[in-house]
Design goal:
Blueprint (H helix, E strand, L loop, with lengths): L1 H21 L12 E4 L4 E4 L5 E2 L1 H4 L8 E5 L8 E7 L9 H16 L5 E11 L2 E11 L6 E13 L2 E10 L4 H13 L1 E2 L1
Antiparallel strand pairs: 1-2, 2-10, 3-4, 4-5, 5-9, 6-7, 7-8, 8-9
Length: 192
């Protein structure tokens, strides 16, 4: 009788541990992190450890952007920024890929003029059931021995009147951690 109870308890614990291990965790690696809620874009996104949000800086951004988080580059490490904003006019779902690819290249040219870019990814996505498209680019140094930056953008149809974006940039020879942070922030984005 006691052995049966112990075995049943062990199976219950093992099943619970397996469920915990396999269960989705909300926002992935950033599930328990603070978030920026951007009313202008209608989006919210998580702030990774080591990154900062300063609401006063949001007010001084170029008009294309409405919020930002940043990570300063440390010795031998890369820094980065994530910016959110709203498109000037709504973009139909059928044009999201074309517009996301255009926006990625335009931002690469704006932030890194006269540097070549390499398309790493362009794929449809959804954010909370809303149509989206994500594009990732590597910005190459003129010497082409290492990438100068990594840029990733997700363009999302928030509603019939609004298309918004989250743009992430890892700079200073982006390492895997910075690229991972940018990707995790974009994946954490939700429509508010």
């Amino acid at each position: 009788m006691v052995i049966g109870i112990v075995v049943a308890l062990a199976l219950l614990l093992a099943g619970g541990a397996t469920w915990w291990w396999l269960a989705p965790d909300g926002d992935g690696p950033l599930a328990d992190r603070p978030r920026v809620t951007d009313a202008t874009s209608g989006l919210s996104y998580a702030i990774p450890k080591g990154w900062e949000h300063d609401a006063a800086k949001d007010k001084r951004l170029l008009s294309a952007f409405s919020s930002t988080i940043t990570k300063k580059a440390g010795p031998g490490g890369s820094g980065g920024a994530v910016l959110a904003g709203r498109s000037r006019k709504p973009i139909p779902s059928s044009a999201l890929q074309r517009q996301a690819e255009f926006a990625a290249r335009s931002n690469a040219e704006f932030f890194f003029p006269d540097q070549a870019v390499r398309l790493e990814k362009s794929q449809p996505a959804t954010i909370g059931g809303h149509s989206a498209h994500t594009v990732a680019l590597a910005v190459q140094k003129k010497s082409k021995d290492r990438d100068a930056a990594y840029l990733k953008i997700t363009l999302v149809t928030v509603d019939g009147d609004r298309t918004s974006f989250v743009l992430g940039v890892a700079t200073a020879a982006p390492d895997a951690a910075s690229r991972g942070d940018v990707g995790a922030v974009l994946e954490s984005a939700t429509v508010e």
